[in-house]
Write a structure and sequence with these properties.
By secondary structure, the chain is of the alpha/beta class. It has one domain: Metallo-dependent phosphatases (Purple Acid Phosphatase, chain A, domain 2). The protein contains 5 helices and 14 strands. Helix 2 packs parallel to helix 3. Bound molecules: fe (ii) ion. The site of fe (ii) ion has 6 residues, from loops.
């Protein structure tokens, strides 16, 4: 199973001056079973930005694209609706088990309307993808707070996801979450421990994140619970704001779930109207 990981496309004012067509051509040159896209497709959650992001994703020649929402995609009270309209509408959204004692701000559009339908602003879902004889379960977690760059995951939603996962058959589970769990930046996930507990409980081996605009791959080794996972933080793929690393990028993971796993980082440098790609095999 081959996975290509992109993130932080940032259509709108933060989008790069690079050539999107050249980027699509490069992405499409890989033999990819699944594209993982870890949020911040837009800059200001504007409809026109969502529209541009949709057009870009439509240019990727892969049947399985999994997108999650980022903090920049959730900057107004209806932006989650735009995500569902333009990017992806899950068949089944995951809701909290109960509306009692919910901590996350703006989880419902109105405090007076704690009803589990159009007033709910989080986009949590599961997606099953069969590649060959293996079924991958993508656990998509919305870590974003309405109009806020910090992350928070409602514990009640993790419990709902757990129930759903326990009733699902799969070979390998991965988690997609915009905010990083290991290693933080100035706008971190403030309850990452709860999410790590969840990952340990379900023996998830790979976690895919974005948000920081800095590529980073690290492993967590829980010695007590004897569980290890790898976290892939994808730097921005097409942002004008490229942090101190100085490049946009994506990852290509070949033979995921097999012994001969290969991991490539593809760095992208904008050179006038052209893109320069530097591919480096890490593992
Ligand atoms: Fe972000």
């Amino acid at each position: 199973m081959n996975i290509l990981h992109i993130s932080d496309l940032h259509f709108g004012p933060y989008h790069w001056k690079g050539n999107d067509e050249a980027l699509l051509k490069k992405i499409n040159s890989y033999n990819t079973d699944i594209v993982i896209n870890t949020g911040d497709l837009t800059t200001d959650s504007m409809e026109s930005e969502y529209c541009d992001a949709r057009d870009f994703l439509n240019g990727i020649k892969c049947d399985n694209i999994i997108s999650i929402i980022g903090n920049h995609d959730k900057l107004n009270k209806r932006s989650h609706e735009l995500f569902k309209e333009y990017i992806f509408k899950p068949e089944k959204l995951i809701y909290p088990l109960s509306d009692k004692r919910l901590e996350k701000k703006g989880l419902f559009l109105s405090e007076k309307n704690l009803v589990l339908n159009e007033y709910f602003t989080d986009i949590n879902y599961l997606k099953k993808i069969k590649i060959g004889n293996k079924t991958l379960l993508a656990v998509c977690i919305d870590s974003n707070i309405l109009n806020n760059c910090y992350g928070y995951v409602e514990e009640s939603i993790l419990n709902s996801l757990s129930l759903e996962i326990n009733n699902t058959e799969y070979d390998m589970a991965v988690v997609l979450i915009h905010h990083s769990l290991l290693g933080t930046d100035e706008c971190p996930l403030t309850n990452s421990k709860r999410v790590i507990d969840f990952i340990t409980r379900h023996r998830v081996g790979n976690v895919f994140c974005g948000h920081t605009h800095e590529s980073d791959i690290r492993q967590s080794n829980d010695i007590i619970n004897k569980h290890q996972f790898t976290q892939f933080v994808c730097g921005s793929t097409s942002s004008g704001s490229i942090s101190h690393q100085g490049y946009n990028m994506f990852y290509y993971l070949k033979n995921v779930g097999e012994e001969n796993l290969q991991i490539y980082i593809v760095k992208i440098v904008v050179k006038e109207d052209k893109l320069e790609f530097q591919e480096e095999r890490i593992i």
